[in-house]
Records
---
Amino acid sequence: MDDLTKWANQGVEGHFTEPNPWLTIDDIVVESSARLVGGLNDEVVVMNSLSTNLNLLMLAFFQPTPTRNKILVEHKPFPSDMVLALFVCLVD
Ligand SMILES: Cc1ncc(COP(=O)(O)O)c(C=O)c1O
């Protein structure tokens, strides 16, 4: 059964049923991801899209103060990166 059929038949339950329970689907790439970044298997996690991860990172670490309140981005950043930078500034 392909994953779209599984989704059509099981919906969210597909996270827990064989074959390929989606809950642990990233397990199959942990070892190669750890090798890629020079880490140990329990030091890596594969998750989300680049934009989602960047958003989470910026929301967690950007703590503006009256004197440190700017985000520098490269010239002509990837459009969604720019939107995220603006969004994080507006959230505060
Ligand atoms: C620099 C950069 N930022 C953001 C993205 C968007 O990534 P995603 O679709 O995983 O959110 C890309 C995609 O190629 C990218 O190259």
Note: The mean pLDDT is 91.
---
Amino acid sequence: MEQNETCSPDQGSTDVLGHRCLFTPPHLVNAIAQSAISTSADSLTLAPGAIQQLQTFSTPSGNSQAESDAAYEDELRKQELLEISSQLARAAEEDPIPSEFTNPGTYRKVYNLQFTKHPSSFPGSLWRKENDPRSDDEAVNSLYDSMGVVYKFFSVAFNDNNIFRTYTPPVGIVHYDFYFPGAFFHIPYPDDGTNRHTAIICGDGWANDPWNNGASLKNFNGLFGNFAASLEVVAHEMVHGFLHAVCKLKLDKEPGVVNEHLADVFGIMCEQFSKDQTVFTADWLVGEDLIAPDWKGVAFRSFKAPGTAYRLSKEPFKVQDGDDAQVAHMDEYLKGEQDKGGVHINSGILNKAFFLVATRLAETLGEKYKYSWTLAGKIWYTAFTAELSTMKMAADCDVRTWAARTYSAAKRKLKLEKEVCEIVKGAWGDVGITVG
Ligand SMILES: [Zn+2]
């Protein structure tokens, strides 16, 4: 088994430029944009800024551009990242974490960027820090509360009170840009230890219409809700930061698939934890609370049945841009450049395996294991954070190595009984991966 775990340990990620998860995959924004545009004009009024955001967001960058453009974009991006990093360092100096705070790794500060997304404006003004009373801005409060749930979840479930390791806990930033249909995690640049300041940045979606005195948009409720208001979004993005802090796990190709999978797994466990849901009562959907109520039955992803979370194309149904393209078996693994190597598409295979492990453990072992994090989550957490056969998780860990690590974690690290190990092995087998 361990011979699969031969990725070079602790290899740093060097290609941070342009590689970050925006939560909303471009193909989903594109599907919603196309579907909205093809809907009768009478029933749809999108503000000009919203249409522009949809177009920008749904156009994959880089692929069709000349190399000189790409190089120029990289240079621009470097400058932006440098500026953001130095602004975060400045803000941290202005408002340091009090030395008497017991768990500095979980200290929260939420800033309001007031829609001035320019790097020199980061992080905006500090609106709420740890133990402050509620702010009069609901996005600030939502992000503050969700960050608290994430910290509490890792503390209660895994006794981990410092998920960002040697980095500072991220500052939260809301009101990044009007209509921005996403959220992302800022990793310091350069990431060489000289700057340890991170941030989680949330867009407002279509929570309000700046062209109409902040009124909420009527039709389709503006497509997307405020990303700061979704625990799953906040948890998913914070977990990207956790994954980076532990092993600089890459965000594209196969390691990117593992990365998206783990962000979804720990994200959905946070949601189940906050709602006290068991593996049987949970909906196993990601992002269902973010899509406007008019789009019935639409979520971003489904753990239970990858590929069925949304269906926006016209009849007859077929897998294309307008429908959930996630796959659930290695036979269907999408190769190619799309979605940075299908990171949000192939992650369905791994998500399905986790769903199977969590539900089968609860079915087989009973009441004590009805929560996903009690055992399945513990195996996944251990597979990611522990040294297995003297191998740390590698930055370029591929899909099969990841599967092998979960089996190793169950069998050799946690020394779980054979029945449990067989369930892990069986679930991976069901999605086309042999372990053990
Ligand atoms: Zn992600």
Note: The radius of gyration is 21 Å.
